[in-house]
Amino acid sequence: MKTFISIPVVTALVAAAQAAEVPAALADFHLPTGDAQGVCLPVAPKHTDEFGKMQTAVTQKLQALSEDEIREFMKNYNPDMLLAYDARLWGSKADYDAYKKEWGKCQLQAQSNIQSRITLKEEPDGTWQLLALVGNTQNRQFQILSLSSLKYDPKTNTWKSGFGELTPAEFKVTDDYVFKAQIGTEWKLEKEDTFSKTNQLLRIAKTTDGNNVFISFISIERSVISGQVLSQEGYTLLFPIPKPQIKK
Hints:
This protein has helices at residues 24-27, 49-63, 67-75, 93-103; strands at 38-46, 107-109, 114-122, 128-136, 141-144, 151-153, 158-161, 164-173, 182-192, 196-207, 212-223, 229-240. Strands 1, 2, 3, 4, 5, 6, 7, 8, 9, 10, 11 and 12 form a 12-stranded antiparallel β-sheet that branches. The radius of gyration is 20 Å and the shape is globular. It is α+β, with helices and mostly antiparallel strands and 248 residues long. A hairpin with a 5-residue loop joins strand 11 (212-223) and strand 12 (229-240).
C-alpha cells in the first residue's frame, strides 16, 4: 500500500504491551489492553480542490438522469469508494482516468492538538469494551467517545449497543477505498420500530502494509414517518501500530 499520510503521527503506548488473552477476532489489530493506552488521531479524508470540481460535474450529470436511474445508482453508492466508470457521468474514459488520478491524491486531515486514547478492557463477565477518549492535548480535557458504550462478546463475535446486537462481516477493500487498502471486520446493526429506524456500524480494519489500524463508528437514527434524521454521529480513529523496540 502506498503511503498517503501527510500529518504528523505520534505513536506511543502509555503503559504495558498488549495482553495475550485478547479475543481472536480482535488480536490482529494489536490494540493496547488493560492499563495500556494507545495514542491515535481522529481523521477525515481531504480531497484536492480539483477533485471537488470534478465531483461537482459528476453530480450535475447524475442529477440530469431519470428518477429510476438515480435510484438504481444510489443503491450501490458509497462515498468512501471510488466511483466505477459510467459513460453517462463522464464525457470519455480519459476524463474518468483523470478523475481517478485526482481521487488517489486524497490525504488524511486531522485537527491539531486533538488526540484520542484507546484501550481494550475485559469486564468481569468476560465481555470486552473498546474504551476511547478524545480531547485537547494542550488543556488535557478529554471526553468519552460513544463507541465506548459497546460491549464485545467473544463467544459470538458480536458487539451490543443500547439498540441491540451488531453482527460481523468481513471488510476488505483495495486502494480505491478513501483510506486505501485494508482488511478487517465491520459489525452492523439495523433496527426499526414504529417510530424510528436505526443503523449502527463499528469497523476495525488494518492497512495491508500492517502499519495502521482504522476504527470507524457510525450511528444514524431516522424517523420512519418523515424520514428526518433524529440523531447522527460518525468518526474515524487512526491508530499507528507500535513497532517492536529492538534492544541494543
